[in-house]
Write a structure and sequence with these properties.
By secondary structure, the chain is an alpha+beta fold. The protein has 26 helices and seven strands. The chain folds into four domains: about 5-150, Neurolysin, domain 3, CATH 1.10.1370.40; about 185-250, no CATH class; about 260-355 and about 545-615, Neurolysin, domain 3; about 360-540 and about 620-680, Neurolysin, domain 3, CATH 1.10.1370.40. The strands form two sheets. A five-stranded mixed beta sheet has the order 3-4-5-7-6. A two-stranded antiparallel sheet has the order 1-2. Helix 1 (about 25-50) packs antiparallel against helix 2 (about 55-65) and helix 12 packs antiparallel against helix 19 (about 545-565).
């Protein structure tokens, strides 16, 4: 389909907010649209570099920020679908697209004439009469182009371009393998008795998943992205727990066509090679040089500071679980697949809380409307109206219009709650349209989760963790909606990777905030609020099992650093992925078989295909800021419009248009203190 008039992606969207007309878009439209957009963008860049007069902000930066608009629209429309509804046709497009997109990005980022004009502006920045956002725009473009290799000679640039093309293909392949193997390893059970301990809703979801696969009368347990599984906490059958855990940990390492071991080893080697070309000791050094951390050493110091006390706490937790196991008639050494089940027993014994039994208080629609949305209304004055007249990319994706208190529009929010075989694992936020005053656009943002979908007519009851995840991802959505910038380069969540998790982690606090919890946590049958004594116990147990939770996360963060601090020669010498993992985890004291890493290498999507390479530490790095900010809210009255407006104006609304640590200091009045984080995770002393 090369006829532009027949391709809906090549004309302005007729829908509000520029929402792509997905009902009219066929997979065959995407590649021709990308090709047309690539050509248009390159012509726009050439028009800038053909200007003979000296570089000015108006003749260089303004047209640069206006360039590539068609490409941005097409790319955001496509990548939303490729992550959330990756049919075989969409996967085929993505495989073809990956090297083309990498080559195009390099054609812009490594353009010598464009770099020369931006460098000329950067070198005399103090002489120019520019506002703060304009100055920062010049600084960031210069830094990012330099970081990409724009200052290299032509031979080195060509080498970097080839590496980027191959890496884009490999990371796409990693994702394709992972999706296929995750679907293939979904665990099939023949009888409901095999799943003793699951709720009616969970059984309904497993039966529905089986029916979708043509296995009516049986039960299918699909796998989340992380190593464990929410069902492990309730399943009474040890063999069922083992089967689920074994399937999860086998992904990408079975010697089948979807094995990811050779793919990831090649990725690590090429990233190290590219880093050396760009003048860095390792890929981790390259990545952190343009993050708030600055160096891999700073990351290592934080992870080591936390690892030892986390491991000690996990060992104490393990001993407590083993004591319970030893009291049973068929005692056995506690294994990884037993941890969640016996943790719930300890939680019930020590705090009289059964988190699985809380699900009737967490009906999904009420959590969304009376919890997530309501908290945002109290803080920021915004309201949400469902737009059933607007169709997103999948029938399960719901569209909401967001209004400010004065009635003005803020953008669109799309929620895609349920898991499906075409959706990648995990939970995330992305933008379909970026806000920009220069382009006259408002934000359209998406939240994706992977909640099992019950049979038709049955309510969706969320787990405690799924409620937390929804609040978390909505924090990203607020960041994307509220960022109010002139230039699209700074739109939404376009901040440093090790800062981007901060606003979303802050938003998690409202899940258990008294007014918010009381408003949404109502029993689905009786409407009764979550009992006060249960709420008290939830707060009392906030550091419970944090040894495990912190250790499994730190293990994954350290594994990421271990891979990405390798030189090319060191990477080439790694021939056994499992052995490398074991050695890395032992080196930081986190090699506990009962506490596996949250992600093993072969299914570590964040770092091998998800944009977090050498950056998975970002969650704990951002949590330092988050925990300190929660203390600020507690000290200043909590859920108030004044507090919400301050956080919106000084942090969320800034987008990427300001150094993020400056924005934090503007909000908090000082740099962050690590003590609230240590207290939250039980790591004091």
């Amino acid at each position: 389909m090369t006829d532009a008039s027949a391709n809906p992606l090549l004309s302005p969207s007729p829908l509000p907010y520029g929402l792509p007309p997905y009902a009219l878009i066929d997979p065959a439209h995407y590649l021709p649209a990308f090709q047309a957009a690539f050509a248009q963008h390159l012509e726009e860049i050439a028009a800038i570099t053909r200007v003979r007069s000296a570089a000015t902000f108006e003749n260089t930066m303004v047209p640069l920020e206006g360039s590539g608009r068609l490409l941005g629209d097409v790319a955001r429309a496509f990548y939303t679908v490729s992550s959330a509804d990756a049919t075989p046709e969409i996967q085929q497009v993505e495989e073809q697209l990956a090297p083309l997109m990498a080559a195009h990005e390099d054609a812009v980022r490594l353009d010598a004439q464009l770099y020369e004009r931006i460098t000329a502006l950067h070198d005399r920045l103090d002489e120019l009469d520019l506002g703060a956002e304009q100055q920062y725009l010049v600084q960031r473009w210069h830094r990012e182009m330099t970081h990409a290799g724009a200052g290299l000679d032509d031979e080195a640039k060509a080498a970097v371009t080839e590496l980027n093309k191959e890496l884009s293909t490999l990371t796409t392949l990693f994702d394709k393998h992972l999706l296929a193997d995750t679907n293939d390893l979904a665990v099939v059970f023949d009888d409901a008795g095999d799943l003793d301990g699951l709720s009616d809703g969970e059984l309904s979801a497993a039966a529905s998943a089986a029916t979708d696969r043509g296995l009516s009368g049986r039960y299918v347990v699909t796998l989340p992205l992380f190593t464990g599984h929410p069902y492990l906490a309730g399943l009474r059958g040890r063999d069922a727990r083992r089967r689920i855990m074994d399937a999860s940990r086998a992904r990408g390492s079975r010697g089948n066509p979807d094995d990811n071991r050779d793919v990831l080893r090649r990725i690590v080697r090429l990233r190290a090679q590219r880093a050396a070309l760009l003048g860095y000791d390792s890929h981790a050094a390259y990545v952190t040089a343009d993050e708030t951390a600055g160096t891999p050493q700073a990351v290592s110091e934080l992870l080591h500071r936390l690892a030892a006390p986390a491991a000690r706490n996990a060992q104490r937790e393990q001993a407590a679980l083993q004591r319970i196991v030893d009291e049973s008639p068929d005692a056995f050494p506690l294994a990884a697949h037993d941890w969640a089940f016996y943790t719930e027993k300890v939680r019930q014994a020590e705090y009289a809380i059964d988190t699985a039994a809380l699900r009737p208080w967490f009906e999904a629609e009420r959590v969304l409307q009376d919890g997530v949305f309501w908290a945002a209304t109290q803080l920021y004055g915004i309201t949400f109206t469902e737009r059933g007249d607007l169709q997103a990319y999948h029938p399960d994706a719901r569209v909401f219009e967001v209004h400010n208190e004065d009635g003005s529009t803020q953008g669109l929010y799309i929620l895609d709650l349920y898991t499906r075989d075409t959706k990648r694992g995990g939970a995330w936020m992305n933008a379909i349209v970026d806000q920009s005053a220069l382009l006259g656009t408002q934000a359209v943002v998406v939240n994706n989760l992977n909640v099992p979908k019950p049979a038709a007519g049955r309510p969706t009851l969320l787990t405690f963790d799924e409620v937390s995840t929804l609040f978390h991802e909505f924090g990203h959505a607020l960041h994307g909606l509220f960022a109010t910038v002139t230039y699209p380069h700074f739109a939404g969540t376009a901040v440093f990777r090790d800062f981007v998790e901060f606003p979303s982690q802050v938003n998690e606090m409202w899940m258990l905030w008294p007014e918010v919890l009381d408003h949404y946590a109502r029993h689905i049958d009786t409407g009764a609020p979550l009992p006060a004594e249960v709420v008290e116990k939830l707060h009392a147990s906030e550091t419970f099992n944090q040894g495990f939770a912190t250790s499994e996360y730190l293990a994954a963060a350290w594994l990421d650093q271990a891979w990405h601090t390798l030189t090319e020669a060191e990477a080439a010498a790694v021939d056994d992925v499992a052995a490398f993992e074991a050695s890395a985890l032992a080196s930081i004291g986190l090699a506990n078989p009962a506490v596996p890493t949250r992600y093993s290498s072969t299914y570590f999507q964040h770092i091998f295909s998800g944009g977090y390479s050498a950056g998975y530490y970002s969650y704990i790095w951002s949590e330092v800021l988050d925990a300190d900010t929660v203390e600020w809210f507690k000290d200043n009255g909590g859920l108030t419009r004044a507090n919400g407006d301050r956080f919106r104006d000084r942090l969320l609304g800034v987008g990427g248009a300001k150094d993020p640590l400056e924005a934090f200091r503007d909000f908090r009045g000082r740099d962050a203190d690590i003590q609230p984080l240590l207290k939250r995770r039980g790591l004091e002393g």
